[in-house]
## 1
Amino acid sequence: MRYFLFRLLPAVFLIFTLNSCYNGPSSDEIYNESDVILTQYNKSYDFSSQKYFAVYDKIYTTQLDAKGKISKDSLSDSDAKTLTDQIVKDMVSKGYKQVVKDVNGNFGYQDGSTFVLQEPDLGINALLLSNVTQVNTVVWGWWYDWGYWGWWDYPYYPYYPYYPGYVSSFSYTVGALVVEMFEYTPNATSDTKIAVSWTGVIRGIDTGAKSTNLAKGVNGISQMFTQSPYIQSM
Amino acid sequence: MKRIAIILMVVLGASLSTFSQVTEGFGFGAVSYEVNIPTSSFSSNYISKTSFYGGSAEGRYMIADHLSLGVSFSWAKFYEEIPRQTYQLNNGAVNATLFRFTRSFPIKALAHYYFGDSENIVRPYAGIGIGAVNMRTETDVSDFAFIDNRWNFIATPEAGALIGFGKYSNSGVILALKYNFTTYSENNISNLQYLGIQAGIFFGVGQ
């Protein structure tokens, strides 16, 4: 028995040594590759016949506490601009033209020295869901109750979005940046529902340093548009 | 040279012995390191990367001069990162990096036939292991983990050789090729299979 163990031990040692060479992913590696970019769209919506778009320049951030209660904040103007600039860049590269609001609150674009009034065909909102502390199934559109639509000249509640048959719910356990594109609907009445034509989500964006998150946000937005070739103005 | 060989044997824990080798009534154990190479649909549809994380422990008893029966426990762990790419959905697309893991843990009954004279230092053999395998696959996307864990049948034809440390040693090196065939068929894998390369030490017991 003594001999048996004497012979066995070095061999066992050798095997454990060789096995320690296992090169699985480190937690850092998994973290850096953890973000998932998801896009969904309404297949019957005609993206190609639209021309003008506007992006809401404010990005709200939300938190869910342990009781599932939602609190609201917003990104700094410079961080929001970093992200919305990327949205604008991608939309322009796909043949759309940006309209902005002038001091009087009218949509239009600058043409030389004149401001040409023009309402958008498409509106785009972005929202950051952060520090979600529990597994929650969030129904799309739950965040539209905050007067978000004031900026879009929809003066009174309720205006709420709907997703024509292509999105129902999504579960967040980590932060997510949500970008939504909807049909701009002027002269809405209180019965009007806003049809969301396209939704992009970067899941896993809120688990690291701020600078990393911003970089992930910019790259993620770019990827959203890359994987959505149907968004192309004719 | 011989001195080096003796030192090596001592280091490896193999003492010179005057007992005869692999013959009827001889029992031996072996511990081995194993490298495993995915094949078939396991390689093409799930993990293609060779695993350097494996090993086995087995015991065999010679019921005749050329025939042994035994049991073995082994393990193999496979891993591959599928680089970031876009997967099409019905109403959209997903862009993500996938991490795939497979852990195989077979428990087998063994039967082997040995070629050549029992006095030979090198004893080639061929045989088969048949038993149960606990197979666990895991696919990670972001913080989602899709885990499948189940027991399946495994059959492992193998061919190898026992190489004694000396003419009268009852210890030595074991080398073998094993083809692991399992009935695990999930994750687009049909009958998960992999080729194992075994290198280890065998040592006589009870003589």
## 2
Amino acid sequence: MTSHAQRRLPVLLTLILLSAGLLLACGRSSTASERATTPEPAVTLRGTVLNPPRAKPAFTLTDSSGRPYDFRRETEGSVTLLFFGYTHCPDICPTHMALIAHALKGLPAEVTSRIKVVFVSVDPDRDPPERLKTWLGHFSADFVGLTGSQAEVDAAQTAAGVPLAFRQPFPNGDYSVAHAATVLAYTTDNTAHFGYPLGTSVEDWTHDLPRLVQNGWTHR
Amino acid sequence: MSVTFPTSLRRTAVIAAALAALLLAAACNGNGEEQSAVKASPCPTPDVDALCTSTPSAAAAAAVATASPPPTATAAATATPTMARPMASPSPAAMSPGGMAAASPVAGPVFRSGALTISAVTARAAPAGERSAAYLTVANTGSGEDALIAAASAVADTVEVHEVVMEGGLAKMQPVARIPVPAGGKETLRPGGYHVMLIGLRQELKEGSTISLTLTFERAGAVPIEARVITYAMPAGGGMAGR
């Protein structure tokens, strides 16, 4: 009997190890199927995953020097942060711009040189190029300000897949503008895998920007 | 039914099985960590038209909750849900006036009136004729709720208390009649949440200067305060309300 049991021991061990291996494989198999439906590549970022990811839109608007700016072409090869706002915005727009600018100041040049920040006015009547230039200059001379006709900036929003901004009149005839509050972050594959909503902090940007630059997303 | 494989073959089988198990585990583990990171901030409603942040999103809150605190913040401040949901009634322990002052890069003078303590008062620098917004924290050590119901300042034509609400993926600003400050609690006015809006500035708000404001509360009445003007700089806590 003893010899019989001894002979069976390796078989049992084999079965146990095989089972363990199968269990591990099965346990991960759901992860593998999820991966097929989540944006790739998956990395540890604090931004909100955009599912599905957004293709970088193609539009041409007027930059703050009054020249045409082909968004797709000008930002090719750079990590591009795209935000739709307006300069009379008292709260969200200046805060996003200030926090991004602050984070960029603390990052090394090899990272910041590969990042472009593009601010598209959704209030073109009050945001001519020179005003955009002055306003963005409060944050960074490197930020790109774009404006155009209302139809052009509306088309740009549609192309980027954000809900269209609209005016909210004040009783005194003034108005504010309701607008998308998320910064879209396009990587060098010309795709936004992540958005940065209200609540994104300097620490979040400082954490994510180098990873957006260095994660190996390439042109596809 | 006893197995009669040669011993050497059995050993080989055991070793092969063990190796297979190890390889499988290693292969899966390589991506498992990344995957869990993505799952930490999922798009709650994959919506083609609206950004996934268009719904009040746990992901947005998570983004704030995972933010590192300012260098001097306490561990308690980091862990508190008030970082993610500043509009909710925070627990008194989460951000005591002292804690707030320590945690905030914009801490300044503290103003007291009765049961209320108002701290971290800032206004955003802006040219004359433009708009600005003021932010602050109100703590209520009293036994009854109080509420901010109005604000005034000589530096602007119109001063209103506003809040930002997310609707259909759009951030909208709207006047708010009262901002409650619960008994033993506090409320923070910060970007993306509540703010005191200064419309039609009669003077330039210059960085480093201070401006006078008067807040009116239901119980405490009028409370004069001063806001330090900062150039598009960090609001209290270094981030926005994640709503």
